[in-house]
Amino acid sequence: MGDGEDRPSLADQRGVESVYQPAEDSDLLARTARERVEAGDTVLDVGTGSGYVAATLADAGARRAVGVDVSPLACREAADNGVPVVRGDLVEPFQRDAFDIVTFNPPYLPTPSEQEWDDWMEHALSGGDDGRRLVDPFLETVERVLAPGGEGLMLVSSLTDPDAVRAYASEQGLASEQLASEKHPYEALVVLRFYRV
Amino acid sequence: MKEDLMEIICCPLDKHDLNLEVTERDDGEILSGELTCTECSETFPIEDGIPNLLPPDMRDEAPA
What we know:
heterodimer, A: alpha/beta, B: mainly beta, four-stranded antiparallel beta sheet
């Protein structure tokens, strides 16, 4: 893993679109979450983008799989893909104890601030200076919406420092474990599970 | 949105329940209307079938 200077731009790594399309990361998160969903579960996919993870979990037997995204373009696309969707900020517009599983494939790539905020796609990819611009707020707020026994499943990259992410979760009173890991060019993708201690 | 979404959404500001006022409905799908917080009275639009529950100060923002 280099220091970032020889990495291609975010858009080059992920293809140029205005709504993030399912890639290796969404796929790993969807496959991992699919194994954990139980018939009758209510599931939320945060930053749902095209709605791919939510649709996969609905297909896997979730009673209800809802998406939330801050981008109006993503909301439209998820809705067109048949996913019940809410425009909102992370888990803020949802009731306490509402979900058995909350999935999140956040923008996790560390990005120097001078490269940020051109458009909705950049917003979907950039994790800020440390890659945790939305990772940390998610960990601060997800516990409220988890049903008893519920869990958060988040995809992060080795570039995001999964150990630091887990340490921050612990400060928020969340236990964690690593459920899956996959090597890719530039990074390893990891699925972390968070649950109440 | 389907009406049963009301079971899991709340006001993003104070987490209280929302009241639903439907303007346009098509085959069980709510296409437009308004959600109002039962506590703080903040209103949130439903447009093209999608409830916009962003806090008002984030609603009109460009990506950021």
